[in-house]
Design brief:
heterodimer; A: 246 residues; mainly alpha; 0% strand; B: alpha/beta; Rossmann fold; 2 domains; six-stranded mixed β-sheet; four-stranded antiparallel β-sheet; 25% strand
Chain lengths: 246, 250
Amino acid sequence: MNIFFHFGRYFIFIKRAFAKPEKFSIYVNRIFEEMNILGVGSLGIVAIISVFMGAVITIQSAFNFESPLIPYYAIGVAVRDSMILEFSPAIVSLILAGKVGSSIASEIGTMRVTEQIDALEIMGINSAGYLIFPKIVASVLFNPILIIFSMFLGVAGGYIFGVLAGVVSPHQFVYGIQYDFRPFNVVYALIKSGVFAFIIASVPAYHGYYTKGGALEVGRSSTKGVVYSSVLILAFDLILTQLLLS
Amino acid sequence: MIEINNISKSFAGKNVIHNISFCFEAGKTNMIIGESGSGKTTLLKCMVGLNELDTGQVLFDGRNFYDLDFNGKKEIRKEIGMLFQGGALFDSKTVEENVVFPISMFTDLSASEKKDRANFCLQRVNLENANHLYPSELSGGMKKRVAIARAIAVQPKYLFCDEPNSGLDPKTSIVIDNLIKEITEEYNITTMVITHDMNSVIEIGDNIMFIYKGQNWWEGDKREILKTDNKEVIDFVYATKFMKELKTKL
């Protein structure tokens, strides 16, 4: 029964978050602020993870493609498709669920236990709308940018480390990343990244918003936000893959 | 004026407030006093809709808060200023931004007009040259004063104060009390103050309601409370040695 309670309350919460804003211009400013905090603030971690993921995929592919029947350019194909189809949208989103999700849950949870959310409500402001709507919109708009950024850096990381390690030549790698390229794969990745962004922003926000108690409960809400959003990302990864690629 | 009629609220089957009625007059400091856990804060939260009532009415100048839809409640809340126990200032905003926030939300004033209004409110609470400080850089008394400035920024008709003196030294407490009293009379606000500080009651209490075990046990003014023969009120008022000595002199 508990799951149905949370399910229902989550949808009521989202409905409130998407209610008509009190003042649109303030919400627009908030969206840009959140893009800066949640999106631009995540560029560094996304860059580091993507470069290393690309490098590791290159070296592992080279290790596994030792058969003379498999051409060397297959390494480039493997890196490109791994990054576009799964690593950039799913793994980077899981990392962001940890970084951004815990930040959102603890921020909103702290605001709840220090009565800042009550203060907004008393002023006649829809607290869910003012606090959560800009985070969701900023996340959904900026996450695809982060994912594209991750795809490029992942492939670049694979190229640099592959060439430096001598496992593939520059020509073979470049030929591989161009070979049989399907633009729909990028569309598929961007659709996934949009859905994951919604989960990353809304699920931890929900847990933070309904925090009761003090600092300990804020910590618990933060943990729950990250765990549930990570599980949902994996579940929707499977569902969307089945729907879009099968 | 705010009228509450037969308000009751229970949590998990336990009656926290029971059948309370009272009239909070405009331009007067209406105080709710009582022991810790007697239901004062629950009553306040029920009045502003932060807790849902079980039964009863809350009439803001004749408008029953609980008969209104979401937007109707929002309209009444725009007329409410509230001073929370901990201040509830927005951590991510400076003092000036905290005060400007409700003005930006509900008016179409220009940036300079908003700044002027914020400065006026901050001057009114004797807090100047603190505009660019963050709440974490303020003392307890300063936080309360910023919270009062934010509460009066959009000229509220109703002011709710939840233990405005908690955690403050006696001198700062008197400053905050007098500020609440002055603002109430100056702008003819219906002010409701929750406290268990008898100094505040004697200093600024125009109308007083004593809550005991979730019920309206006694009501009167600051002169009457010192002379009442109600046992529970006497136990509360004269709980400290200082007040007992005062009683012998009266």
